[in-house]
Amino acid sequence: MSSIRVAILGFGTVGEGVYKTIYSHQDKLSKALGKRVEVAAILIKNKNKYKNRGIDNRVLVTDDYEEILKLEKLDVVVEAIVGQEPALTYLQKAIQKGCHIITANKEMFAVHGSKLQDLAMKRGVGVGFEATVAGGVPVIQTLQQLLNINRIKKIEGILNGTSNYILSEMRTNHLSFSEALQAAQEKGYAEADPTNDVEGYDAFYKLMILSEIAFGGKPEWANVPREGITTITEEQIKGAEKLGLRFKLIASIQIVAGEIVGSVRPTLVTESHPLFNIEGVENSVSIEGDIVGRLTLQGPGAGMLPTASAVIEDLIHVVRANHHSLTQFSLKEGVGLVEDADEEGNQNWLMIHPGEAQLTSVPVSVVTETDHHIYLKADEPTITTLRKRNHQASFFEVLGEFQLKKSV
């Protein structure tokens, strides 16, 4: 039986998981593809540190990418490196060699995904990137299937397991942010430098990738509000719980008045919302289509095997697909024509500890007001104005059905 030869760039958690899965599931891969899948090469940073990692001695292990490109036969390159470079350059060279590429690198792909798609289309090879968004949760495959007929109206998701774990721990175990972060680091859920996770960058990159798939384009990055969870307090967590609300770091993208509008920020969700019960390191994405309605996907968003699962499924897809018929990202037909109840961009907000709130001369509809909260409907620019006028108050979007009772 002939073989499909694969190179793995990077041998950290993801790279090692892919290597192990290829060999543990060789029989199923062979049946699915009609060929064996063989790891031909692995690129590592330091050749002296790869010993005792369980790598077959027939595999080329090198810290020189050019050695891999010189292999006579190479079909697929799997990239599991961190950062934009050298990952982008490596993948461009792989495409030029005629290899399919698969990546788990969300930052690189958020910035350069269109460029890689375009180059791959010209060379007639495939690009797999399921692992860039939600680990083992098949969000991208689902969106691509939905887009045959459905128009996507809105996507909301918990795309970062570290932040979700921290918020869950703060609520259930009454921890401060710093205590919950330390617990996440001790369990290996958070890096020594957790900035990408807790400041919302990781979720932001993933949201930009989803935007291109769903809508064929991205909003201006500078126009997308991005807030992390570092300022969320125990007091706010407890106060929200008394109101039947939970804090989640929500990434959201939708069409408003023909424009793609996104945000990444701590958000309050009600029990009626599908993301309310997503706890710990789980990821979940809620997708609204104009025909199918709302679909919610949930599962492990990170880790060795969940991410390897996404890569292996991409491997099947890129090898089987007819890549000469691929089209690059482009604005989807009909985007902005879907009727939406929130076409003007209004959202529901909870203003916590408003004090002597200044709400005059701004277009808001105050639904309910108490000593500690104001529940209102307003658009993004209005909330920005209110934040400037009310420095002591906190503003959080509310998702799901909610009614603030004056007796609270």
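The above is record 1. Record 2 follows with the same two-line structure.
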Amino acid sequence: MTHSDNPTDAFEPRSAITWTLVERGYVNQVTDLAGVDGAFAAGVVPVYAGFDATADSLHVGHLMPIMALRRLQQAGHKPIVLIGGGTTRIGDPSFRSAARPMLSEDEIAANVAGIRKVFERLLTFGDGPSDAVMVNNADWLDRMAWIDMLRDVGKHFSVNRMLSFDSVKTRLEQQENLSFLEFNYMILQAVDFLELFRRTGCRLQLGGGDQWGNIVGGVDLLRRIEGAEVFGMTTPLLTTASGVKMGKTAAGAVWVNEDRLSPYDYWQFWRNAEDADVVRFLKLFTELPIDEIERLGRAEGAELNAVKERLANEATALVHGRQAADHAQQTARQAFGQGEAAAGLPTVELDDAERTAGVMLIDLLVRAGLAASKSEARRAISGRGVRIDGEVVEDGDGLLTVAGRPLRLSLGKKRHVVVK
């Protein structure tokens, strides 16, 4: 099994979907690109990607493998969405400095219900050859006997090799504790691939860049136990041009579920993309044709703002629907162009006591998601970046009272909430 950090160098694909994945930037590492391409050209390939239920919503950092699954389905291949109801109970240690918090079974079940919504918007589920299916690895992991797992699976894993993977080495080199519980995660993920191969004929596992070691373990296990030629592929761990990991902002995660983040704020996240990221994001997170993206990429100056709005509209429409995207755009234009608080902006409601006594502005900035902490809120105020109804706030220690009409609280020029 071989791979390259630039697996697409000097490679001419036989399958159109391979070219699409490469051209749009979905391919990072792959165990055998020529083999994957040959499988795509030969017929329908079941492809799976796994998602642990660590929260009740996914964030935009998860969208890369989901969008790749969407592309594969459009090309006639079969997506398998694996929800980690079992592996969530352990927690993936990949490139983490500490163990994930342990969740109860009820918490995991609630999270599973929450993240289902994302896949139902982006993939077509059903019983057809290329229809997506959703499975939960708790269905087989919860029934697995410990001795059977050691005898049938564990014997194929070399501890020496497991310790050599970057995700494990990083943790150990930083002298952070790696529990035996977490160390088993790689084995359980390999079991998932084995189980899906036996149930569905799955031949490709897709995951984020931090999953490479786990994915390679599964490919190797299939070769040893089943003598099967299967493949692994990772999408890039996406960062912005300035090096910030996708999915995070100063105010927290960019959630995909609208009950965690409003469609307006989701739209604003894409609208505020750095200039250097616009073309790349259009390729990855919209379905605009490549030639149109290249044309849009030639925009400069004020024209680039219109391209960013196009990015925000297309990316938001995929996740929240076209109507929500159009409404977010209209709300943004109204908020930027008028002094009054715009309908459709995220809203913070004060209770009776707060309306009477007032609320500390720095507390309100954090509560509204405009700042991640009180210290960050103070810095924004001292930097003259906070406005109320367009007027710069000079005193961060004052109480804000709302009587009568709502107020518009703004951070910078593009982030607004209504306080009422």
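The chain has three domains: 16-235, 262-337, 347-419.
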